[in-house]
Amino acid sequence: MQRQSHLLTLPDNPFFCFPESVGNYWNHPQHYTFREAGSLNNFNIHYVESGKGYVEWDGETHTLEAGEAVLYFPLQRQHYYSSKDEPWNIRWVHFYGHGLQEYMVERGFRRSQLWVLRNRSAWEKAHEELLLEAEQHRMLHPSKLSSLTYAILAAFVEQAMPLAGNKSAASSRRIIELLPLMQQEASQPFILEHWADLAGVSPHYFCKLFRSEMEMTPVEFVTRCRLQTAKQWLLERKDANIGQIAMDAGYPSVSYFNKKFMKHEGMTPTLYRQLYGV
Fold first, then answer.
1. Would you call 60 helix, strand, or coil by DSSP?
2. How does pLDDT run across 168-196, given as a tens digit for each residue?
3. Cα dihedral 132, 134, 135, 136 in deg (nearest 10)
4. pLDDT tens figures, 2-22
5. Rounded to 10 degrees, what is the CA torsion of 165, 168, 170, 174?
């Protein structure tokens, strides 16, 4: 079975991203796609919601299962098909836009075609919203089509990790899983060895993987978490002085807290409280 909507290709597209087509296939074991290099001039995200299928890439056949996706750049050769025994339920979107290729390259999406999404529900929800808009209104609201496509892209950029069956990929996934706990315990003293042990890697490798996934060091991440907590407390705990909030958020001194707050927010904690406190 299938749902799909093909839209007009805008010759002078004014949007950063815009859908060429969007759809959902399920219970379709015969689904098979092969496109020669140069035949399709748009991006293609092909995401598996359930079941499994196969992607032929770089001379090898790769299995895609629930939560995994293949991303094709414009003009790339494409070859993928459903498992006949466990037919996939797939969601796909083809899209294009001004400056989009440079953006995707800068974000590192040339390094792999195969990806796994950390938060499946966010991407699936964004995709369903675009599909419904395309089915119900076609091209009546182009700006809405563009914004919904951007929501899909933003969810992918935020949640996608390269898919690889190796220790590095597994460790990277474990680090992502640790982020909520790191945020929750940010006000406690940061002990690198503790977090590296939880991820099952050495402290040096933990830092390397963390920077690769988050584009910041573990300490920078914890600092941001502490600042976010402190900002919240500055507005909620009106009777607490700055020194108490700094200590509770995990800072060793109020002067160090003020320095970090000024660097990130461009103002002192006192001024922040005055400007944003009700």
1. strand
2. 556 666 777 788 899 999 999 999 999 99
3. 80
4. 999 999 888 888 999 999 999
5. -170
Q: Is 87 helix (H, G, I), strand (E, B) or coil?
A: coil
Is residue 127 a contact partner of residue 93, using CB atoms and an 8 Å limit? yes
Query: What six digits make up the tokens of 192?
Result: 């690198």
Residues 265 and 231: their CA atoms lie apart, in Å, by 10
For residues 97 and 182, membership in a common domain is answered with no
User: What CATH number does residue 191 fall under?
Assistant: 1.10.10.60
Count of structural domains within the chain: 2
Domain residue limits at 81: 2-162
State the Cα–Cα distance between residues 192 and 172, nearest whole angstrom.
16
Classify the C-alpha dihedral 31-93-47-127 as positive or negative.
negative
Q: In whole angstroms, what is the distance from residue 81 CA to residue 63 CA?
A: 10
The two three-digit tokens of residue 59, written as one number: 């001379």
Q: Residues 127, 260: one domain? A: no
| pTM recorded for the entire structure | 0.66
Distance of alpha carbon 217 from its chain centroid, rounded?
Answer: 18
- Exposure pattern of 237-268 as b/e (b: 16+ CB <10 Å)? eeeeebeebbbebbbeebeebbebbeeeeeee
Residue that terminates a domain, selected from 137, 162, 187: 162
